[in-house]
Amino acid sequence: xxxxxxxxxxxxxxxxxxxxxxxxxxxxxxxxxxxxxxxxxxxxxxxxxxxxxxxxxxxxxxxxxxxxxxxxxxxxxxxxxxxxxxxxxxxxxxxxxxxxxxxxxxxxxxxxxxxxxxxxxxxxxxxxxxxxxxxxxxxxxxxxxxxxxxxxxxxxxxxxxxxxxxxxxxxxxxxxxxxxxxxxxxxxxxxxxxxxxxxxxxxxxxxxxxx
Length: 211
Description:
The protein has 6 helices and 6 strands. It is of the alpha/beta class. It has a 6-stranded parallel β-sheet with strand order 3-2-1-4-5-6, with helices on both faces. Helix 2 links the parallel strand 2 and strand 3 (57-61). Helix 3 (69-81) packs parallel to helix 4 (104-132).
């Protein structure tokens, strides 16, 4: 059921990592609430599965770590909808390995996807989010709060993302939009349910963070 009303314009939402798991559930949850959703991911087929049966979801194949892609993503949102209200930085990858076995090929993609890409995408989205008084949601994980042998780099990137979130929340508050973090738990199903519930708060005037 479409919950949007004439007095509340339909929200425009961009979700990274929307081809599977939490990102897919998030895109569909927003669409069910009446939002127009830009579902972003590296692979076209999973994105089209996300959008199947959900006419408000538009797939966008993009590598958020590639040069120029954050700007293209935001430009696409502007061209399609003229605005952006919510940016969900959900995409993340894990390359497991204990200290002594880590290689640049394992380390670099995790830092690029989990940390650098959210920074550059959020930065590219600033003008649209300031214009709409919008929301950035950075998706973290509970493993960043405790030791996780074999996945130290992943945990470190998510811990850094949480600190960025807190810093941005203070830094950008005077500019009219908000930055929130959602910390998922290890169990995929519980994480998906928790994130869906948290993001529904963005349909109100004062969305609340769940950590």
